[in-house]
Automatic annotation (TrEMBL):
Reactions this protein catalyses: thiamine + H2O = 5-(2-hydroxyethyl)-4-methylthiazole + 4-amino-5-hydroxymethyl-2-methylpyrimidine + H(+); 4-amino-5-aminomethyl-2-methylpyrimidine + H2O = 4-amino-5-hydroxymethyl-2-methylpyrimidine + NH4(+)
Protein name: Aminopyrimidine aminohydrolase
Keywords: Hydrolase, Thiamine biosynthesis
SUPFAM superfamilies with a match to the protein in the record: Heme oxygenase-like (SSF48613)
Any single biological process term in GO: thiamine diphosphate biosynthetic process
EC number(s) per entry: 3.5.99.2
CDD domains referenced in this protein's UniProt entry, alphabetically: TenA_E_At3g16990-like (cd19357)
Active-site residues, record numbering mapped to chain: 201
Gene3D superfamilies: Heme oxygenase-like (1.20.910.10)
Segments forming domain Thiaminase-2/PQQC: 28-210
Residues that coordinate or bind substrate: 57, 93, 142
Amino acid sequence: MAVTTVDPTRTVPAVPVAELPSRHPDPWRAATRHPFLDAVRDGTVPAAAFDTWLVQDARFVSDLLAFQARLLARAPRPAQAVLAGGLVALVDELSWFEEQAAVRGLDLDAAVLPVTAAYAGLLGRLDATDVGTALTALWTIERTYLDAWSAARPGAPEYRGFVEHWTQPGFAGYVAGLEAAADGVPAADADAVFTEVVAAEVAFWDMAVEAA
């Protein structure tokens, strides 16, 4: 994405982030009602494809942890608590991935696939944007994840534990906290960063389908 420089003398129209999905319904549906999610719900996703996605998602969470730590360091005071809480949750999530990998016999040090590397590049570019843009991006990432896995409920028996893990009430509360933080610091171009993140999410699901 292009690095945006914000003119401090210019008033940035505030777009509540909760309105962004309805402003971009087709990309949003593609990200949250993806065939991969349907296959997890129906039990038709091959185990190897799910495992490929799981390993790459663990790599992404590691990248997200680093991005969020950098964002916390420059975020305004009202946003710091939710970001700090999210960092603790991401550390716990990485431990959970390690447990799942041990159970399923997966190597979390497997090669990073191009889609995962591209997403890491996007996070790196977000470091150079205004704080509002970075917060909107983070909210988009987590809101997409929550809505996507909610659409996969209850999940086929072999994947139900994963679906329940990613749709627990505490996660929904965290996403709500990120919404408040993002709304408190309007992005320079909320629509642009929203659509770019959503496209990255679609590509990540596509990667899992292609692995089948």
